[in-house]
Amino acid sequence: MREVYFIKQNKEKWLGIEQVIQGKIKKNPDDLSSLYINLINDLSFAQTYYPKSNTTVYLNHLSSQIFQKIYKTKRVEENRFLYFFKTEVPLLVYQYRRYLGYAFLFFTLFTLIGVLSAIYDKDFANVILGEDYVNQTIENIKDGNAVGIYQSGSTWGSTIGIIFNNIGVGAKLYIYGITGGVGTLWALLSNSVMLGSFQYFFYDYGALKDSARGIWLHGVFEIFAMVIEAMCGLILGASILFPRTFSRFNSFKNGFRDSFKIFLSTVPFTICAGIIEGYVTRHALKMPLFLNLIIIFGCLAVIGFYYFVYPSIVNKKINNQINDAVL
């Protein structure tokens, strides 16, 4: 069957499924399951005869969306908050995993630019970090307290200020995606270059080890969340630039809905980073080194597992449930 005829034959059905997904048409669980099985048959046909077609991509996306609709309907008794973090976000992260790869690639590149800029221009750190901050930190390093800047102010006051500042930075990384992703990349460039020059600054003054003991206590959650927020901005931008078979407006709505859910998942990590920075980082150099390492690598294991490993586990579990349902 020619692809054009295949699309013409099934277009109305697929548009109807879109209406169900968007909540404009209500269906009971049995009807949803019937629609899903029918859609899976279309997807299998498309994968066989049009494997590289946009039609196949569209049907794959549609099938994942309606399955989530079925899963939510059947799991109404489960705590909505737990479902959001345990299933919904991991599935979305898996669906958009290539954007996670793009975000980390750009983050690494931009951070290296910051390091190289600081290497070849000794005044670069002053420009990026500010002369007052640099001069104060140099004095702290001379006094043997590389992370002394984190010991100023009250614990609770610093924590609140840090949390709101970091959420603001993350929101910019995300919302700037409305520019087609250009604004997100610019915001990521600014923050990554600052990080790279910041770390080289401590290396240049022989305090990299002490700074790492303190900075990365909170930095693991903070920086990792920043990259995920950039991922969300890229998803938002791509939904505008590449609508695929959707209208540009519907593509934007879908992209905004999915990316916003992933963005919300970073908020708990950002809050934890602020609490650690306000209450723990100030004691970094007084703590036993093994405790610093436990916190740093423990945070890395938690957030790395959640965004890199767990989505594949959830996706595999859901696919097994799909196969059982179809069989």
Automatic annotation (TrEMBL):
Domain of life of the organism encoding this protein: Bacteria
InterPro entries: SpoIIM-like
Entry keyword set: Membrane, Transmembrane, Transmembrane helix
Pfam families reported for this sequence: SpoIIM
Annotated TM spans: 99-120, 173-203, 215-242, 262-280, 289-309
Protein name from the UniProt record: Membrane protein SpoIIM required for sporulation
Organism for this UniProt entry: Chryseobacterium geocarposphaerae
